[in-house]
Amino acid sequence: MAEMVQSVTSLPLVKRYIATHDANGKSVYVDTPPQQYFPVPDVGGLARSFSVSSVPAKLENDEDVKAYLGKEGPTSWTSSSIVTPGGVNLLIVDLAPGGTSVMHRTVSIDFSVCVIGEIEHELDGGEKVLLRPGDHIVQRGTMHRWHNASKTEPARFIATTVSCLPFDIAGKQLEEIHLPRDPQEKL
User: Where is the Cupin type-2 domain (predicted)?
Assistant: First the structure.
């Protein structure tokens, strides 16, 4: 696992606040570690802002918060997985200037919102859309990649990934895949 860092671009640091209840039932904020990113060379980085292991989520006795704040486990803030099987993740993705992810697919439905910069979303058939702040993608197990359209400024999107039940596409069961980067590739 790559060393986690607090920032991977020059964008402002992200603050995460988790609201829960104290022993008397009063709403309170929980102390959390600083947001940490898993750097992705030549792309930027990914930070897990929160995660739950199931839907509906188990909130009683702060089960979800304890699992997230733990150092290990599928919903831990230290996990670099994009999707938690059976669960939901809230992810912050920062893209370096010109940064491009590999073409990939996850077994999930994702709701991704561009919040800073302009981000190109490309499908495996070559179709592309340009996302500006507020624009968003509803992604249903599709092969795709992300590309920061700016060569000088970083970009950020926020994604909620929701694990989905297995299903077939063109007679083949959907599976997570990350294609290798083609050294000749140009966007």
Answer: 92-159
